[in-house]
Amino acid sequence: MHISTYIKFPAMIAVILVLGGCAKDKCTKIVQQKIYTPVLLSLEDYWASVKSEEPKEIGTTGKIYVKDQYIFVSEPYLGIHVIDNSTPASPQKISFLNVMGNMEIAIKGNYLYADSYNDLMVFDISDPRNITFVNRLPDATAYPISADGLLMGWKMYPDSIVIGFTSRDTSYCDCSTNDNMLLFASSEAAASYNNKTQQNGKGGSMARFTIAGDYLYTVNHFQLKAFNLSNAASPLLKGTQNINSGIETIFPYGDYLFIGSRNAMYIYDIANPAAPAQRSVVTHFRACDPVVVEGSKAYVTVRSGAACAGNLNQLQVFDISNVDNPIKLSTTEMKNPHGLGIDNGKLFICEGTFGLRFMNASDVTNIITTKLVDGLDTYDVIPFENQHRLLVSARDGIYQYDYSTMTNPQLLSKIAVKGHAY
Questions:
Q1: What are the structural domain ranges in the chain?
Q2: Which residues neighbour 418 within 8 Å (Cβ) at sequence distance 6 or greater?
């Protein structure tokens, strides 16, 4: 999509160093710095872009979601691809929901909930080939963070929104003692924005949106929010509570929410769905941390990496029979685990650039890999329970496997993408 409207705006300085009196001949330190220029889109053009379109090639893969025979794939910050998976060996793209700023998906009945920058959007998907806009809750979610750690979806003026950033390197003479400065510059941007039936759907372990009962729960980097969906077309925000910093994922199971952060797993009960109550916290060294649950066991992956920090790469299993006192049962060393899924003791772990693991977790004290599919750069998985099918989001496409035989899973199909994911 080409963005046709860019808006010039006054200079914005996040931090300004006082450089007066700094003579060049006395300068002892040259500082390299990036200057970021927000790219603005008029709200008029933004709203005109929110619509259902013909299917298109997937550029990059993001979060995945399944509902009935449909797969929903978020292409980060651009929209949602809808795929008819009636025939798993030959899935067909049937439409594309253009919703800029999208990262997350959840579905209840015929209503799809999606973030659009910091807004919560509601769409009617009763006809997946022609999805229609229903409702919008402004400023209902967190601001998405760009790759440079900058805020997107920021409404600079009543008639414009930040949809990205351009950057350039600069250097200056620093006579002060402050080494940390982030500059925002003013300019007129001159480039394009590059481009089994059930009531609820199912997301992957990396999701920040989930549905339990008549509530949509969302997490941003430090908050848990609860939206009442009794009237599914018109969500009502019923509660917001701070958890901690570094919150990353949310997974529902029974009467509980399991929330993963960069240094802990949190367990909340939803006896009062409008106000989930914290029951316990399991801490670990800083690392990325999605979690899935089956029965009385919680499976947690922790990994290292630029965003995650730390140096742990493990699968940790906890006994959650007593949610007030989880007990670690085992630790299995991994390469670089990302998303994971579990189905009747069959465990699936995305190992990033190290491939996809099919594992036997029937004995959690002795979890073994039955098959490692290498050559893939994997992000998240969704098992189709009782169907022995696995949906995999990878850098180069969306894969489906038949895992009837865990030692020899069969590739059913692949939907290729043209770009780079995550």
A1: 1-14+26-203
A2: 57, 58, 59
Region for residue 117 given its phi and psi (left: phi exceeds 0; alpha: psi -120 to 50; beta: otherwise): left
* 327: β partners: 319
Long-range contacts of 349-357 (CB under 8 A, 24+ apart): 349/301, 349/315, 349/381, 350/378, 350/379, 350/380, 350/381, 350/392, 350/394, 351/378, 352/303, 352/377, 352/378, 352/379, 353/377, 356/381, 356/392, 356/394
Give dist(CA 107, CA 109) in Å, integer. 6
Please check the confidence at residue 280 and state whether its pLDDT lies above 60: yes
Tokens of 349: 């772990």
Q: What is the pLDDT of residues 106-123, one digit of tens each?
A: 999 999 999 998 899 999
Would you state the structure tokens that stand for residue 280, as one six-digit string?
């316990």
pLDDT digits (tens, 9 = 90+) for 374-392: 999 999 999 997 889 999 9
Strands (E), 320-387: 327-333, 340-343, 346-350, 356-360, 368-373, 378-384
User: Contact at 8 Å (CB) between 122 and 111?
Assistant: yes
> Alpha carbon of 221 to those of 54, 114, 225, 247, 338: distances in Å?
34, 17, 11, 5, 18
Single out the residue of 60, 84, 35 nearest to residue 377, CA to CA: 60
- Supply φ then ψ for residue 49, to 5 degrees: -85, -20
User: For residue 208, what are its two tokens?
Assistant: 């920040």
Q: How confident is the model at residue 14 (pLDDT cuts 50, 70, 90)?
A: very low
CA proximity to 227, closest of 131, 118, 113, 103: 113
* Contact assessment for residue 115 and residue 203, using Cβ atoms and an 8 Å cutoff: no
Q: Which two tokens stand for residue 381?
A: 């998985």
For 176-204, b where at least 16 C-beta lie within 10 A, e where not — what string? eeeeebebebeeebeeebeeeeeebbbbb
Structure confidence by residue, pLDDT tens digits, 335-352: 999 999 999 999 999 999
Output the pTM of the full model.
0.83
Which of 307, 360, 362, 365 minimizes the C-alpha distance to 336?
Answer: 307
- The amino acid occupying position 410 is Q
Chain-centroid distance of CA 131 in Å reads 22
The amino acid occupying position 263 is N
Classify residue 89 as left (phi > 0), alpha (psi -120 to 50) or beta. alpha
351, 334 contact by CB (below 8 A): yes
Give a three-class secondary structure readout of 198-213.
Answer: CCECEECCCCCEEEEC
